[in-house]
Amino acid sequence: MHARWLSFVVWALLAASLAYWALMLMAKGPQAPAMTRPAIADGAPADWTRLFTAAKAAEAPVEAASSRYQLLG
Question: What string of DSSP letters covers the chain?
């Protein structure tokens, strides 16, 4: 007999949970008045190539051959 009561309680809790979440998900939140408008209609145009391309490495200046070698003695 305890199994029947336990089964009934479990199913009742499941039904209550289902009803609660159905009401929560279907409820509408507060609406803005009809006269409101968005502050900015479009986003600012941007250059996406800088974001999606590899950064160019700055080339090191080539030193003259005379500055690369040092005479010893």
Answer: -HHHHHHHHHHHHHHHHHHHHHHHHH---PPPPTT---S-SSPPP--THHHHSPPPPPPPPPPPHHHH-----
Q: 40: Cβ–Cβ under 8 A, 6 or more apart, which residues?
A: none
At residue 56 the predicted structure's pLDDT band, cuts being 50, 70 and 90, is confident
Size (the chain), residues:
73
Rounded average pLDDT over 4-13 = 97
Report yes or no on whether pTM surpasses 0.85. Answer: no
Distance CA 60, CA 69 (A): 18
Measured on CA atoms in the order 44, 46, 51, 55, is the torsion positive or negative?
negative
